[in-house]
Amino acid sequence: LHVFGAMPAALAALATFLFCAYLALFFAAAGWSCVRAAPAGGARRLWLGVAAVVALEWLRGWLFTGFPWLNLGTSQAPGGPLAGFAPILGNYGVSLGVAALAACLVTIAGRRDRGAVRIAAAVGFLVLMLSGLALSRWDWTRPAGPAVTMALLQGNVPQEMKWREEVRTATLLAYRDMIAAAKAQVVVAPETALPAFLDQLPADYLEGIRARARADGKEVLLGVVEREPAGEGLRYFNSLVRLTGANESYRKRHLVPFGEFIPPGFKFVLAVLKIPMSDFARGGAGQAPIEAAGVRFAVAICYEDIFGEEVIEALPAAQVIINVSNDAWFGRSFAAEQHLQSSQMRALETGRWVVRSTNTGATAAIDTRGQVVARLPWFTTGTLEASVTPMEGMTPYARWGNLAALLLVAGVAGAALRLGR
User: Looking at residue 274, what is its pLDDT?
Assistant: First the structure.
């Protein structure tokens, strides 16, 4: 807000505080509801807390377009003892498991409960852990064909320089050269890799990339901004375009409030923020996967891949998931690593490889078990080449979405309400 959006520091601090306070309301509501429903405390309040935390986490994930960042379940991706539940119950189901383990530990460590209750909690703890570990060995999907070689570009263009006129030519030339040098069947450039509208790019520039790609036998997927007439003005779309195809593209549909669109009643924010193109149009629902090199790719632009229930809409057609991002907005904070971990959870939930091309990191290839098999260092310019296997088949979560997890949450809440003091 301040560094890149030119918002006064005091106002940026206030906005950040209010956003954190808003997110805290969900956990406050979970605690308040447990105290109201179980004023005497004890096991009823403890297990109501397990259900309430996950229920409010789910509510946070869709209310006002949603913000499911740092869900409890994401802590298990990859390699956590409960990660095996992700293909069955999704992120919220894993969150329920984490909360249940915590409740078991509280019971085991407590002194108010009888010995038999504490033993039962210890058994429940072990059953959850061992079940998750056993399920993590199960393969829910299978290869759909031979592996495809992919080149994931990381341009490392400083965010404060990205849209300046004096560096535009250098950026265009750098990405042209990276695409030409890449030795892969599919080359992916990150979100808004080129700082210009697609129709503004020189025709010989794009045709040069296409001609070289055709000669080398490779496909190019390019993150860029598209625009089209709308009434008396123009609409802008954050897109991933298949340059070597017949104008095939994916347009981002889940936009970031205040970063990519301004909610109704907040247009005055545009007068304060100086972020380029901060009012995009949404892409349509149900967009088909992009096909390149004989593989069908589901696309998630930037933080779209933190919404597991939306990513699975591209299945079973999609065989690989692509995420293009620009986390340079958050500097050298934990944000890029947290975003990477969300992508790892999507790999677990869908049984698909996830490949990420980003501006400054984390550019990575993630296998079906959520393991990062290759990545580039932060804030470096480079090309990550990876061999990626297209997958077919549906995990239980891909079929059910969040329904099974929410039914379990309701079941835990119902059982807790029946408990005595």
Answer: 65
Nearest Cα to Cα of residue 298 among 280, 276, 277, 320:
320
pTM above 0.90, yes or no: yes
Interatomic CA distance for residues 384 and 346, integer angstroms: 20
Q: CA 239 to CA 249: how far, in whole Å?
A: 7
pLDDT at 195: 87
Query: For residue 80, what are its two tokens?
Result: 């956590």
pLDDT digits (tens, 9 = 90+) for 229-271: 887 778 999 999 999 877 689 999 998 887 777 777 776 766 6
Whole-number Cα distances in Å, 66 to 153, 336, 378: 29, 19, 28
Residue 248 pLDDT: 86
The whole-number pLDDT of residue 120 equals 93
Residues pairing with 249 in the sheet: 241
Instruction: Mark whether 34 is an active-site residue.
Output: no
Which of 57, 218, 252, 349 is labelled catalytic? Answer: 252
Q: Are 310 and 241 in contact (CB under 8 A)?
A: no
Active site (annotated) includes residue 274: no
Q: Choosing from 34, 57, 104, 191, which is the catalytic residue?
A: 191
CB 2 within 8 A of CB 10: no
Max intra-chain CA distance, the chain = 78
The residue to which tokens 């969300």 are assigned? 342
* CA–CA distance, 94 with 117 (Å, rounded to integer): 24
DSSP 282: P
Which of 34, 162, 302, 309 is flagged as catalytic?
302
Among candidates 355, 348, 353, 354, which has minimal Cα distance to 397?
Answer: 348
Supply the mean pLDDT for the chain. 92
